[in-house]
Amino acid sequence: MLSRLVLRAAPAALRSLQRPVTVGVLHATRPLHTSKQHLAPLPPLPEKGGEVRYGLIPEEYFQFLYPKTGVTGPYVLGTGLILYFLSKEIYVVNHETIAAICILSVIIYGIKKFGPEVAAFADKLNEEKIAKAQAVKTESIEGLEAAIEQEKKEQWRVEGRSYLFDAKRNNIAMLLETNYRERLLTVYNEVKKRLDYQVALQNLKRQKEQEHMIQWVEKSVVQSITPQQQKESISKCILDLKMLSKSAQATA
Amino acid sequence: MCVSLSAAVLLKDMKLLDVKLGQLPSWLAMRDFTPGGILGAIRRGYNRYYTKYIDVRKGGLGGISMVLAGYVVISYIWSYSHLKHERRRKYH
């Protein structure tokens, strides 16, 4: 039954909720960034803590009383208070007082004797911690500076891009030229081969025609020489030879 | 009251050392005594002591010795009712 009540009250409660304030594209129900800005980097730790006199009384007490009572005022006040407590027995002197005196004297002796050494040791530990952190910081700073140097060098290298591209363009042009010339040579060779073939073909044809014609003419001539013509030609040749020999004999 | 107008500092915002003696009761009455307020006051006080005496590069003896002295004093006050019987004189 109570759950039913809650379910009934829920929409009314939701409606009564504050409408979200649209700040630009942010939907915020409360204002942002109201606290003071925090310091970054953090301020360094103070060197020494607040001054404390005799290990028990802060220095502010003495400074507070100095304008009115001078230097001895706080001591007189302290002595007076102690005497008052003792005389009115607000502080009761019993066996615990003796114990307190012994303990306190031992503590004070220990502090006076070993105080500086312990302080130096603690300071050394602190220094080591700080030095480690500082080393990490300087290392990272150096790493980043080296990265910056590299970056600058890369930027300088980028300026030389034009030379690189010129060289590459020259290379490519040479390649193209070489390729073109090779292909030209190939074309020339091929065309020459075809033309030579045609020339050789024509030569061969003419040669064959000549041979064939010569043979044919010879054959026909030989065929046309009848035996009677042969005899006549032979006798004519003999006559000619005789005449020639006669003329040769005559000249000689 | 003139205090509320002087230097535009309200009474409840003034520090304890600036409050005059006559205004002390009203100043005390204005403090925040809710549990959250008391907790906040304790935290503030602790932080003030801590940042002043302990959270420094070269901390001294006074930082902890004051705390121990305060403990001694408080334990003496709490056990005073038992110590009353060990007084040496009856009338002071």
Short synopsis of the structure:
The complex is a heterodimer of chains A (252) and B (92). Chain A has 6 helices and 4 strands; from the N terminus they run H-E-E-E-E-H-H-H-H-H.
Describe this structure in words.
- The complex is a heterodimer of chains A (252) and B (92).
- Chain A is mainly α and 252 residues long.
- Chain A has helices at 2-16, 59-69, 73-87, 95-159, 161-224, 227-251; strands spanning 21-23, 26-28, 52-53, 57-58.
- In chain A, strand 3 (52-53) and strand 4 form a beta hairpin.
- The mean pLDDT of chain A is 86.
- Chain B contains five helices and no strands.
- Chain B has helices at 2-5, 24-30, 35-54, 62-78, 80-83.
- The chains are: A mainly alpha (252), B mainly alpha (92).
Descriptors:
heterodimer; A: 252 residues; mainly alpha; two-stranded antiparallel sheet; two-stranded antiparallel ribbon; 6 helices; 4% strand; B: 92 residues; 57% helix; extended; disordered N terminus
Give the topology, please:
The complex is a heterodimer of chains A (252) and B (92).
Chain A: H1 2-16, E1 21-23, E2 26-28, E3 52-53, E4 57-58, H2 59-69, H3 73-87, H4 95-159, H5 161-224, H6 227-251
Antiparallel strand pairs in A: 1-2, 3-4
Chain B: H1 2-5, H2 24-30, H3 35-54, H4 62-78, H5 80-83
Subcellular location (chain B): Mitochondrion inner membrane
Organism (chain B): Strigops habroptila
Protein name (chain B): ATP synthase F(0) complex subunit f, mitochondrial
Strand content of chain A: under 5%
What is Rg of chain A? 65 Å
The number of helices of chain A is: 6
What is the average per-residue confidence, as pLDDT of chain A, rounded to a whole number? 86
**Largest protein-protein interface:** A-B, 24 and 24 residues
- Kindly report how far apart the N and C termini of chain B lie: 45 Å
Number of helices of chain B: 5
Walk across the major sheet of chain A and give the strand order.
1-2
Which percent band covers the strand fraction of chain B?
Answer: under 5%
Share of helix of chain A, binned: over 70%
Radius of gyration of chain B: 19 Å
Shape by Cα distribution of chain A: rod-shaped
- The SS-based structural class of chain A is mainly alpha
Oligomer: heterodimer
* Largest β-sheet summary of chain B: none
Number of strands of chain B: 0
Helical percentage of chain B: 55-70%
Q: How many angstroms separate the termini of chain A?
A: 171 Å
How many separate domains make up the residues of chain B? 1
Show unreliable segments of chain A.
none
